[in-house]
Specification:
Elements lengths: L3 E4 L2 H8 L8 E5 L6 E2 L1 E5 L2 E6 L5 E4 L2 E3 L5 E5 L4 E5 L4 E2 L3 E6 L1 H4 L3 H5 L14 E2 L2 H18 L7 H26 L1 H4 L2 H14 L2 H5 L4 H7 L4 H12 L3 H17 L6 H8 L4 H12 L3 H7 L1
Helix pairs in contact: 4-5, 9-10, 11-12, 12-13
């Protein structure tokens, strides 16, 4: 997979798969009707969502492979690179692809909320796995967008297309929430491992060498992307991963405050704070008292 093909526009992608461009900024493609595709890596300049319905090769994202099966949604955002390593020189995919350029949604409510759809930052192996009924909902959303693309463009076209893309993405949020619950065999023990790793972090010299613990550090430890890990912890605990870490940090700080043989500055450095005043400010915001006030009260 040495060659990298840059696709800067929706029409670039349509040309690559042998499909007509009905709208310069958005497209819905029936992949079974596209031409066979070669072994290559693609750099996307637009949003792309694949509904893969059969296994047609190993999908590579970064250094990771995802062996996808039926009824899987894979999300790609502008600037990402995706590669297919098929069994053979060419392969014929089956499923659908929705592509849309950021210019399509610019100035719309959807553009203001795109950062809410964290799944565009998930790794490919964290793809959305659909039930049959969920798949039908997704295909229906694609069909509504395709219907608008095949009509003559009028003053309502953009609003209806963008509204249906937003509806589709909101369904994906719902389905991911369901996946966090139902895929126990994949997620089993993540919270327990996180808690264990968090305790190990503070019992080691990592706070002094690495500083305050970060969400990305624990996500890497658990082989998850930071966004997927954060969303999973939020679903499990009601707190963001950062809030969970902060809560653990303050609980530990309160315990250490009771050790009067150590100054507040020493405790701050032990916990990973670079500056004692930063620790004092965080402690007061969390507990309601400064470290010295809390020590006096107790």
């Amino acid at each position: 997979m040495d060659n990298l093909v840059r696709l800067n526009s929706v029409s670039d992608y349509n040309k690559r798969v042998g499909q007509e461009t009905l709208h310069p900024l958005v497209s819905v493609i029936d992949l079974s009707k596209s031409k066979p595709l070669p072994h290559e890596r693609l750099h996307f300049g637009f949003y792309t969502i694949y509904l893969k319905e059969i296994k047609c090769g190993d999908l590579k994202y970064g250094c990771n492979y995802y062996d996808y099966q039926e009824g899987t949604l894979v999300f790609v955002s502008p600037g990402q690179v995706l590669g297919i390593e098929p069994n053979g020189e060419y392969y014929q995919p089956k499923g659908y692809a929705l592509t849309f350029h950021p210019d399509l949604i610019r100035g719309t409510a959807l553009a203001r909320h795109m950062n809410d759809y964290n799944f565009f930052s998930y790794e490919v192996f964290e793809a959305l796995h659909l039930s049959e009924s969920e798949r039908n909902v997704i295909v229906d959303c694609f069909s509504k967008i395709d219907f608008e693309l095949k009509r003559p463009i009028d003053k309502h076209s953009k609003t209806l297309i963008v509204t249906n893309i937003e509806l589709f993405l909101n369904y994906c949020l719902r389905f991911y929430d369901r996946q966090f619950i139902t895929r126990d065999h994949v997620h089993k023990g993540i919270l327990e491992k996180f808690e264990h790793n968090l305790n190990d972090y503070f019992q080691s010299d990592k706070p002094k060498t690495l500083g305050l613990p970060s969400v990305s550090f624990f996500a890497d430890e658990l082989n998850l992307s930071a966004n997927y890990f954060g969303d999973l912890i939020k679903k499990e605990t009601g707190k963001s991963a950062q809030e969970y870490i902060q809560s653990k940090l303050m609980d530990l700080a309160k315990e250490k405050i009771f050790d009067t043989s150590k100054s507040v500055s020493e405790i701050a450095y032990e916990l990973g704070f670079k500056y004692p005043q930063h620790f004092s400010r965080s402690f007061k915001q969390s507990v309601g008292y400064s470290p010295n006030e809390y020590r006096m009260l107790n």
